[in-house]
Amino acid sequence: MQVEPYQVIGTAWIVALFIWIIGAFSTKRTARKQSAGSRWIDIGEAWLASLLLFARGTRLGPLAWRFVPNSSAVAWVGVALTLAGIALAIAARLFLGGNWSGTVTIKEGHTLVRKGPYTLMRHPIYSGFLLAIFGTALAIGEIRALIAASIVLAVLTHKINLEERFMMEQFGAEYAQYRRKVNALIPFVW
Questions:
Q1: Which tens digits make up the pLDDT trace of 28-70?
Q2: Residues 86 and 128: beta-carbon distance below 8 Å
Q3: What HEC string does 48-102 produce?
Q4: Which of 76, 97, 181, 184 shows the smallest number of beta carbons within 10 Å?
Q5: How far apart are the first and last CA of the chain?
Q6: Residue 190: how many CB atoms within 10 A of its CB?
Q7: CA separation (Å) from 187 to 25, 117, 127, 151?
Q8: Angstrom distance (rounded) from CA 29 to CA 100
Q9: Number of C-alpha atoms within 13 angstroms, CB side, residue 107?
Q10: How buried is residue 162: exposed, middle or buried, by Cβ count under 10 Å (0-12/13-18/19+)?
């Protein structure tokens, strides 16, 4: 039986989803969180991106045009990037522990995590998911996937900006020093 790149990618995203759901039961109580309106916008955009990536019904007209050759090699490079991104996000999630939340929050007893992937980037979960989304887009190779990746980038940029503000308010000079030393998403770049 031959394994298809899309099967591997689908399985990887399902595993990530289950880990996220299970992890949601082991978080600290929320002290402060982003507004409901802001959160609903993030959720709506994420669902739109998911539909573009995974719903075959979105393969219409220009959305189905290819931006890379339809080759097995390109698809498997996309799989590798997807797996690496999901692995990074999961590792970062484990290091974050009880401080994690699906929304931008400050938890009761919130701590500033600077270990593991957080030594290289301030938002490694977002970095991991962006890498995974771009890997998935590469494997799909269609314009709809690039649009989905752009939507995810916009959502995560919004969340990063909000999270940065929350962290500065919570940790002040300690977070400012961390920001000076560690880039947000890509080590030594951004």
A1: 999 999 999 999 999 999 999 999 999 989 999 999 999 999 9
A2: yes
A3: HHHHHHHCHHHCCHHHHCECCCCCHHHHHHHHHHHHHHHHHHHHHHHHHHHHCCC
A4: 181
A5: 42
A6: 9
A7: 30, 10, 10, 22
A8: 10
A9: 18
A10: middle
Confidence of residue 189 (pLDDT cuts 50, 70, 90): confident
Block residue for tokens 């401080």: 99
Residues in the chain, total = 190
Predicted TM-score (pTM) of this structure:
0.94
Q: Tokens for 115? A: 């270990």
Q: Per the structure block, which two tokens stand in for 58?
A: 């979105």
User: How far apart, in whole angstroms, are the C-alpha atoms of residue 162 and residue 190?
Assistant: 17
Q: Which of 15, 182, 19 is nearest to 82 (CA)?
A: 15
